[in-house]
Input
Amino acid sequence: MKRSGDPIVMVTAYDAPSARIAEAAGADAVLVGDSLGMTVLGYGSTLPVTLDDMLRHTAAVVRSVSRPLVVADMPFGSYQASPDDAVANAVRLLAEAGAAAVKLEGGRSVAPLVERMVAAGIPVMGHLGLTPQSVNVFGGYRVRAKEAGEAIALVEDALALETAGAFAVVLELVPAEVAAIVTEELEIPTIGIGAGPSCDGQVQVFHDLVGLSTFTPRHAKRYADAEQVLADAVAAYVREVREGAFPGDENATHASEPVVAELETVLPLAGPRRAGEE
Ligand code: KIV
Output
């Protein structure tokens, strides 16, 4: 797709409904992002997300799609401690959860690990620019590589990931001009989020697109207000139950007359057969 200039479209998904919607919309790839910490699990960052969280949510997504490439994020702590642990954890995401590839954050510092994973048969997507697992090092979620020094380092990191065998690189929150240069320099595709239109593809967080996030970041576009649609539906249910309008006869099943008659012959039930009197 990079060679033919076809934009690659990737979207995050975390469960069966979001995965089905992503596939039906025609997404080329689905990212089970550790952003699920914020979008689904209610954490303030990606840091508390565990490998077990990623295994469960990745498996749900894999069960729900047939065509898009499913990439699973390696969560914080699952690849930093030792290369052996990292390979073993990535293997679990492929073998147990069914992901086709993993994504991890970092450049030259993780390139030897990427090389080892690829040699072990694990396709790896890189992630540069704003790497949210390093929020405590960066001191916030700000645009990266605005200065020449950091921009040059970003290009070197991207080239190191390519040389190590990564099949694509996410560029998050970097200036469009810098992302365009990285895209030009690499043979593998760049997938941008807040990195301008010159990347080979784009990735967005499902909840930002459909209006299920508490706020919409500048790099995202809210195409729907799903939270309002869902809130209206649940409020209508609450109202109808209180008014006696739901459930209607069409929502009920019925016992035959002989069953009701026989039931009435044994009433009232006595002793321990009566609920709460045992
Ligand atoms: O976790 C995630 O959703 C991501 C994307 C923002 C690229 O890493």
